[in-house]
Amino acid sequence: KLASEEANQKALARLNKQTTWDFSLAAGVHRQVASSTPTSSETGPYGTFSLSYNLGRKAANKHIDKSVAAYVAWKDEQVDDVVQQAKVLKMQLEVMVDAQRVQLAVLRTHAEGIAGDLRSLEGVDTSNALMFRNQLLADQVVLSVEIGDVQFRVDQIQNFLSLNF
Question: 61, 17 in Cβ contact below 8 A?
Fold first, then answer.
């Protein structure tokens, strides 16, 4: 949006700069509306030529260029403008991705710990060990679902960021 507004302002500035020279030429036939004598008709060709140059145009062109730059900067800084809101959304999504990555690292650390605990229970056949192994297996399934969910969210947010920003 901001780029299209900037292009529009630059086009308007170029149009305003075109008024440095003014040239006009008019020609035609002159005829008296009421003649003083009924036998004579006073007609004849006429022509006018006008050329003007604006001496202050160079300073005005600089002012127009500065006004375009100031307008673009002003639009960029507006809090309620779409561009500013998009920047805020992008920043929030980047923070969210960072937080999700930290959570993913923690979950993977817990998964490694559960896998280590399961390896330490290999070969132990007591009832407490079997009950603990079953609990660890249930925790491992829940943790793998959570890891998949967090990874999916991170991938979707990164895809959204790459497509839109």
Answer: yes
